[in-house]
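Q: My labmate handed me this sequence with no annotations at all. I'd like to see what the chain might look like in three dimensions before we decide whether it's worth expressing. Could you predict it?
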Amino acid sequence: MVVACEEALAAAKASQGAVAVQLREKDLTAREVLALARELRVVCTAHGVPLLINDRIDVALACDADGVHLPANSFSVRDARELLGKSKLIGCSTHSIAEVEAANRAGADFIVFGPVFDPISKSAYGAAAGVEALSAACEASDIPVYALGGITADRIGDLHDCEIAGVAAIGSVFGAESPGFVTRALLQAMSHHPK
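A: Here is what I predict for the chain of 195 residues:
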């Protein structure tokens, strides 16, 4: 994972693209997640990109991550803010307009909406919401919205009418033979997306 991440970040840097890394690991022990987070902290710092930790505020604090990403059933934004302070980023997963509105009211810094398409990696979120639902989420949000779920460079063109801040990709990058090649393709596609 760290090698794939390093390759993707090197490609992003060469492409002058804006990226962040989110550590989302549910199968490791807390000690193993922290060790991985510390490795990624070094890699992210070397490439000048933010590191976010999924759900684990304790790990985010221990590795001095730039913030957390909260699943829909996780800590409240308010509790996360109290623990992390005002300078850290807090993102929220959203799957409905109600969740988008709640994250906005709660003071999240950004949201991830999805799955837009059928996910490439495993997902427990059910059927794809679709591009129209993503567009509605963007209209309902005052904070940046990132599209997630089945995101590939080819599909970014389908999001042309959505006012997204960017995309989040898991399966298309980490399932690829060359994470760097896929990262460059995603950044190239996003460079043509109206913001």
